[in-house]
Amino acid sequence: MVYKALTIAGSDSGGGAGIQADLKTFQELRVFGMSALTAVTAQNTLGVQGVYPLSPEAVAQQIESVGTDLGADAVKTGMLFSAEIIEVVASKVKQFGWERLVVDPVMIAKGGAPLLQEEAVSALKTHLLPLSMVVTPNIPEAEALTGLTIRTIEDRKEAAKRLHELGVKYVVIKGGHDDDGEETVDVLYDGSEFFYFTSKRIDTKHTHGTGCTFAAAITAELAKGKTVQEAVQTAKSFIQAAISHELGIGHGHGPTNHWAYREKQAR
């Protein structure tokens, strides 16, 4: 059985985030990766030097090409840039009946560059989130989507409830942006119960692409038929290994190590 996952996202010329990170993650987890580009970015570990969005028609045709031939067991979205692209993606998800949809609501690059137009946030909430199985915001993204100020675990739980009310089946609010304590806690909400995934906080600046990689790992596991809880647990282990065994490349926020999890499993 060959499991297949499609990523609909932007390209990162530096290779640490975006579709490059997604495809590496799919491969490492033994899932065949396919892609539909929404934008080309010129970026490296120091920041984003340029964003060049594709037309909604170009995005739609890429998805059509994959959907009508190869198909997908799970789909992930990352940088979608505009309301028009979001609407096209939502339309295609409905057309092909893709239920295992993971939405990583990418809004801002690690260096602070905006990757989603302000008016597109409303389109994301209206058109795409109601179709998604899982949404994986970090704390700033969860704040932007809910209008809440998030400081505590209770705040995260309230944000998760509000996102679930938009139609998302499972909400994962990541804790990496919470600087308190020696651990990071990701909160998973399934509409009735909360689950907590804890890991040791790693003091490093090499975290470029962590959000993309985490969501891609969830997507890969869902493509294999794993439950959301199982997929999140594997993704947590995958990204923990990727951050722990840093590559140390670039002069800024360097990428994570996508092969660290496989090497750890082989020991």
CATH level-3 fold name: UDP-N-acetylmuramoyl-L-alanine:D-glutamate ligase
Radius of gyration: 17 Å
Structural class: alpha/beta
Distance between the termini: 26 Å
Largest sheet: 9 strands, mixed
**Overall number of structural domains:** 1
- Average pLDDT, rounded to a whole number, is 93
Which of globular, elongated, flat, extended, rod-shaped describes the shape? globular
Write the element-wise H/E pattern from the N-terminal end onward: EHEEHEHEHEHHEEEHHH
CATH C-level class is Alpha Beta
Could you say what the CATH architecture is?
3-Layer(aba) Sandwich
Strand coverage percent: 15-25%
pLDDT < 50 stretches = none
Domain Pyridoxamine kinase/Phosphomethylpyrimidine kinase: 12-257
Enzyme class: transferase
EC number: 2.7.1.49, 2.7.4.7
GO molecular function, one term: phosphomethylpyrimidine kinase activity
